[in-house]
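Sample 3 of the quickstart, ligand pyridoxal-5'-phosphate:
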Amino acid sequence: MTRFNTQLVHGLPVGDNATGAVNPPIYNSTTYAFEKVGSMPRYDYARSGNPTREFLENQIAQLEHGTRGFAFASGLAAIHAVLSVFKPGDRIVVGKNIYGGTYSLFHEYFADRGLTFDAVDTHDAAALEAAVAGDRAQGVQPAKAVYFEVLTNPLLDVNDVRAIANIAHRHGAIAIVDNTFVTPYLQRPLDLGADVVLHSATKYLAGHSDVNAGLVVTLGEKIGQQIYFAQNRFGGVLAPAECDAVRRGIQTLALRMDRQQANAKAVAQYLLAHPLVKTVNYPGLPGRERELAAKGLRGAGGVLSFEVVPGVDPADVLDNLHVFRLAVSLGAVESLAELPCRMTHFELPREERLKVGITDELVRLSIGIEDAADLIEDLGQAFDIAYEQYIRRHADVDVFGELTAGVLA
Ligand SMILES: *Cc1c(COP(=O)(O)O)cnc(C)c1O
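Result:
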C-alpha cells in the first residue's frame, strides 16, 4: 500500500483480535503474563511497551518514512527525550523562533546540565554553516545537532529541511526537525535528510484539542535505541486511551488539512485586502507555490498571522470574535485566534520579541474546518468594531466630549 490517504486510514493491519473489529483494541493492561519462568514475552510491562502505543508508534513511523516511532505524554516530553541523548559539553544549533516551551526547556533546563545552544537564522546558509562548524581554534567544537521547526511560529517562515540537513551532515551533526505545523501529509523531513522528526501530536495529528501527546520518529538504529532508552527510563509514555485518540485523529489528517488549507488561503486573501491589515504571513498565498515546492512542501498548513495597522488595537479584533475562539494551541478542527505578545509569546522580553518580528500588532490564527465564509464574516464584524473603537479613540476628544455631553443632557 503506497498511497498516503489509504495509508492514513489503514496503513497497518488490525490483526490481533478474533472479532473482526476494524479498529485496534485499547489494551488497558500494565503487565503481561509470562508463559513460564525464563520465557521472553513480547510485552512485559506497559512503560516498556504497550500494544496500543505500539500501534500508534508504528503508524507514525510508517507515515514519516522512519524505522521507529515513539509516543510520549506531550510534545515537550518527546523533545526532552530527544535532547537527553546529548551529553554535557555538546553544542546544539537551534533555529531562531522555536516554540516557547522548547526554548525554555533548552535554556532553563538543558543549559544548566551542560548543553550549549546557539540560535541562528536558519535561512542564512553561511551563518548556519559557521555556527555548525564551530571554531576549533577558539575551542568551539562542531555542533552535535541542528534543531529547527519547518514552519516558524508565529511568522510562518519556511525552513528548507534538505539544505539545513546537508549543512548539519557536512559537519557530523544530526538534523532534528519539529514537524508539528506541517505533518507528514505536507512533508516528510526524513526523506529530505533529517535524522529525527518529532511532533506535538496535540496539534494536527490528534486534531481535536482533546489530547496532549508527542511523537518521535527516527531513522538510524543507534538514535532509535537511545530514544527508546529515554522513553522507557524517563517513562513519559502516552497512555493507551490517548494513543487511540491520536491513532483515530491521524485517520482524518488529510481531510482536515485539506479544508484547513483551503480556509486558510481564503482567510489570508481576505486579510490581504482588508484596510485594517498591514501584513499577512502565510506561505500558502498565491505566488509562493514555487518556494514551497522547492523546499519540499506540498502545502502551507492552516496557521497564519497578520498585523493590524498602527492605531488599531488587535485586542479589539480578538475580543469581538465569535466563531474563532480566543485560545492558544493550533491544528484542531475549530478555528483559534490569539495575540502572541500577550498569550503564546508573553514570556519573551519585548525587545527580544520585536527583534524576531513578533510585534504588539501581530495576531495568529489557527484555521479550522468550518465554512470559510463564516470565518471571514466573523473577522469582518470584529474589524468593524475595532475600527469604531479606533475612531472613538482618535476623534477630537473635546468636540466629541461636548457632543456626547450635549446628547446625554
Ligand atoms: C505545542 C508545540 C510543542 C509542545 O507540544 P506539547 O504537546 O504542548 O507539549 C512543541 N513544538 C511545537 C511547534 C508546538 O506547536
